[in-house]
Design a protein that fits this description.
The structure is a single chain. The chain is an alpha/beta fold and 376 residues long. The protein folds into 2 domains: 204 residues, Glycogen Phosphorylase B (Rossmann fold, 3-Layer(aba) Sandwich); 139 residues, Glycogen Phosphorylase B (Rossmann fold). The protein has 14 helices and 13 strands. The chain has a 7-stranded parallel beta sheet with strand order 3-2-1-4-5-6-7, with helices on both faces. Strands 10-9-8-11-12-13 form a 6-stranded parallel beta sheet, with helices on both faces. Helix 2 links the parallel strand 2 and strand 3. Helix 4 crosses helix 5. The radius of gyration is 21 Å and the shape is globular. The two termini are 36 Å apart.
Length: 376
C-alpha cells in the first residue's frame, strides 16, 4: 500500500487574509483525501491555525517571508518594512540553504505557499513540486511601495524568481494582475459560507429585533480605534470580536457568543473593515454589505473595491471620517442599498482539484495542475 501523501503548507504571518484563503481549501482537501499528512509552517498563532484548519497537522512556528511592518491595520511603516526586506535579501543565500535543509528533513510530496517566495525557490532546487496560492504577491506589493529605492530592483527580481519557480500561481478573485508570472492562474473567490441567524444573534445580545448590527473587523493587526468619536445612530449596535475598552452601551464585545464567527458575520447588517481579501470575500459571498476605510496606497485596494462594488454592496469612508466619526451618512446609505445575489466561492473547488491532481498519484505525485490561465 502506498504511503499517505505529505503536504507542507506555508502561510505568511502578515494579517489573517492569507490564512482565510488557505483554510477553506485545506478543509475541503482533507475531506477528499482523508489520509493526507499535513505540516503547517507559519508565524501565526497556533491556536488560530487550529481554529480555522479542521484537520490534524504538525506545526512549525516560523516566519516564512519578510512581512510589512504596520503602524496600524491600514498604515505601512515604510522605513521599517524596507529594512526588513533588505535584511532578508542580504541573508538570502544562508536562508535558502537553511530552507533546502528543512525541506530535505520534512520530505513533503507537495509544497503549498501563501506566499513565501524563498520556499518556492528552495522546493524547485530540491525537485519538490510546489504551488503558490494567493490573491497578491510580494513582488507587486514591494514594487508598489519601494520601486526606485536603492537595491529595490534586485529584491523585486529575487521575489519574482521564486514565484516563477512554482508549477502554478493560483490567484483567487479578486486578485491582482500578475503579468510577470507565466504560471498565473485565475480562480473564483475563496471564502467561508456561514448560516445567517439574525434573530438568534439579536436574542443572544438581548437587542430588539429591528436593531441593525455592524460587525467591526479590521484584520489581524492590532489598531487603536477612535471609538469615542464614532456616531451613535438610533437602532444601530456595533459588534467587536476582539478585546477592547468599549466606551458605550451600543458597542458590544461579541467574543462570548454561542455562534461561530462566520455565522455571526452572515447574520449582521454590515461589516466595517479596511481593504483586505478575507473580510471582503466572506462578506460579499455571504451577502453582507461592506463599509470600508479608504486605503489608496495599498496595491490591492482598487481591485478589491471594484469586485465588491460589482458583486456586492460597498461604500467607502475617508480616514478623517473614520477618525472623527462623521460617517453615519455613509453607513445609512450602505444599509439602504438593495442586496445582490451572492457569488459562490468557486475558487475552493478549483484549488482543491489542482492540489488533488498533484497529491493523488503514485507516491503522492500526480499530474501538474491545469494549464489554462483562467480556471473560472
Amino acid at each position: 500500500m502506498s504511503r499517505a501523501p505529505h503536504l507542507l503548507l506555508a502561510i505568511s504571518g502578515h494579517g489573517y487574509g492569507h490564512l482565510a484563503q488557505c483554510a477553506p481549501v485545506i478543509n475541503t482537501l482533507v475531506r477528499q483525501l482523508p489520509g493526507l499528512r499535513l505540516t503547517l509552517m507559519s508565524a501565526l498563532p497556533e491556536q488560530l491555525l487550529r481554529q480555522r484548519i479542521k484537520a490534524d497537522f504538525s506545526c512549525i512556528d516560523a516566519e516564512t517571508d519578510p512581512v510589512l511592518c504596520m503602524r496600524s491595520a491600514w498604515e505601512v511603516d515604510m522605513p521599517a518594512s524596507l529594512a526588513v526586506f533588505r535584511e532578508f535579501y542580504r541573508r538570502r543565500t544562508d536562508l535558502l540553504d537553511e530552507t533546502r535543509t528543512q525541506l530535505r528533513m520534512l520530505k513533503p510530496d507537495l509544497v503549498l505557499a501563501n506566499i513565501p517566495w524563498l520556499l518556492l525557490t528552495a522546493a524547485a532546487q530540491e525537485g519538490i513540486p510546489a504551488i503558490a496560492l494567493c490573491s497578491l504577491n510580494w513582488a507587486v506589493i514591494f514594487n508598489g511601495y519601494f520601486a526606485g529605492e536603492p537595491g529595490a530592483a534586485d529584491i523585486h527580481e529575487q521575489i519574482l524568481a521564486g514565484y516563477r519557480a512554482a508549477e502554478a500561481f493560483l490567484a483567487p478573485e479578486p486578485a491582482l494582475p500578475m503579468p510577470e508570472l507565466p504560471n498565473y492562474r485565475v480562480l473564483g473567490p475563496i471564502a467561508r459560507l456561514g448560516t445567517a441567524r439574525p434573530a438568534r444573534l439579536r436574542e443572544q445580545l438581548d437587542l430588539p429585533a429591528d436593531t441593525q448590527l455592524v460587525l467591526v473587523g479590521l484584520g489581524g493587526i492590532n489598531t487603536g480605534l477612535p471609538l469615542a468619536n464614532w456616531p451613535q445612530p438610533e437602532g444601530v449596535a456595533w459588534l467587536f470580536p476582539q478585546a477592547l475598552d468599549l466606551p458605550r452601551t451600543d458597542m458590544i464585545d461579541c467574543r462570548g457568543l454561542d455562534m461561530p464567527m462566520i455565522d455571526l458575520l452572515a447574520s449582521v447588517d454590515a461589516v466595517l473593515t479596511k481593504p483586505g481579501y478575507g473580510t471582503y470575500t466572506e462578506a460579499v459571498c455571504n451577502g453582507v454589505p461592506l463599509l470600508t476605510l479608504e486605503r489608496p496606497d495599498w496595491p490591492e485596494t482598487a481591485y478589491l473595491n471594484a469586485w465588491a462594488q460589482e458583486q456586492g454592496c460597498l461604500r467607502e469612508m475617508s480616514v478623517e471620517q473614520f477618525s472623527n466619526g462623521s460617517f453615519s451618512g455613509v453607513l445609512a446609505e450602505l444599509l439602504r442599498l438593495p442586496r445582490k445575489k451572492s457569488p459562490p466561492p468557486t475558487g475552493i473547488r478549483q484549488a482543491v482539484e489542482c492540489l488533488l491532481a498533484r497529491l493523488s498519484g503514485p507516491g503522492g505525485a500526480g499530474t501538474p495542475p491545469p494549464g489554462p490561465r483562467h480556471l473560472i
